[in-house]
Amino acid sequence: MSNRLSGYDIEIPPEWTLERVRDLTSRVGSGITPRGGSDVYQTEGVLFIRSQNVRFEGLDLSDVAFIDQKTHRSMAGSKALPFDVLLNITGASIGRCCVLPDGLGEANVNQHVCTVRLEEATPQDAEFLSSTLASPIGQNQIFRLNAGGNREGLNYEQLRAIEVPWPRPNERKKIARILTTLDNLIEKTGALIAKYQAIKQGMMHDLFSRGVDSSGQLRPTQEQAPDLYKQSELGWIPKEWDEGWLADEIGPITSGWSPLCDSVPATKDQWAIQKTTVCVWSGYDETENKRLPGHFQPRPHLEVQKDDILVTRKGPFDRVGVVVHVHETRPKLMFPDTVFRLRLKNEKDVLPAFVPFALGSDAVQSDWYGRKIGLADAQVNINHGILKTTYFPKPKPDEQQMIVTRLSQIQGLIRAEEKQLNKLSSVKSGLVQDLLTGKVHVKVGEAEEVAAHA
């Protein structure tokens, strides 16, 4: 076999070989849907892996199913073993893959997940193969095979024919070690983000149901001190708080503009259109923009300014109604037509930084949840009427500032970890192709060095 990767102008090192999956494996096959379908799923028993569990980041057990031993025995041919590579072979997630780790007990897979089992499976070789299949080397082959006419998914013969570079054992082990180190860092950073998000969610619940008193302490709960609270459209809120329609606090709602733009971000002296992802719950991100082509004239009235409030107005269900405050921003950024801009009438009564937290509270988001418009979760929207008739809590400005200060601190921690996660993902993306094609040769201490500098 040639040492040139199929479909690539890349030649692997002469000491490496190019192998087809069939020459490395003892099994390539998927499972079946148990007789009775989801009705036979259990709350415990044998782990039953479905396509939603297979993620590039690793096995996701947040939405896991189980089957009983009898069903497992009837599907003995698709039993999954530790260090199998799990690969989705149908649907929108086709090509997604990860390694089945040790320590999860018995497992099986359904018909949408294929187990790729190395003849002599080791954790390092399984990680190497999974990383190769997840890289452009594997994904491009999977895309070409799937686009070749079989729209239902990949068959086993197609999978067995996929080519992968195969270094010598010691080098495979080193490469896998580097990638595993990065994956572990990515996983830990993701877990830290989830922890901070849970803390923020708890703080949001307390701060928008109890608020803080003049000493900066949370008030007793309504059950503990009912005389401190009043019933409102938002539920029980402190007596000192005002409340009313959002329409009373804001000026005209402005829609943005989304011309066809270059995919690259703009430099600071260029005009740009922001992406919808400028709005995320961890805060405003000015780097999410696309350069405005020269044949378009900018629209300065759509330029984002300090203390603007941006709200995503259409898109996937969970991305609609995300609200951010523009604490500061570079010039020449215009917001897109997927986003509304709000500006307050009187910033003395309501702090701009308070608005996204208030609109992100459980009461408001639950209200919007039931009023989003659309035929499918993939594309919904909110309109001016929904925003204007949103009931809005209004503590005194001093209390608003205390709430903002507390939530901004935890939000800053989330933002910092998200930046670290993006950095790690970028490092991994840059390394994978070079490592898996031999462009960059690994050294014994490379994994530790990567961990130290990531």
TrEMBL record:
Keyword Ribosomal protein in record: no
GO MF annotations in UniProt: DNA binding
Keyword tags: DNA-binding, Restriction system
InterPro entries named among the record's database cross-references: Restrct_endonuc_typeI_TRD (IPR000055), Restrct_endonuc_typeI_TRD_sf (IPR044946), Type-I_RS_S_subunit (IPR052021)
GO biological process, one term: DNA restriction-modification system
Gene3D superfamilies documented for this protein: Bipartite methylase S protein (1.10.287.1120), DNA methylase specificity domains (3.90.220.20)
Domain Type I restriction modification DNA specificity stretches: 89-189
Pfam families tied to this protein: Methylase_S
Family the entry assigns: Belongs to the type-I restriction system S methylase family.
Protein name: EcoKI restriction-modification system protein HsdS
The organism of origin for this protein: Stieleria bergensis
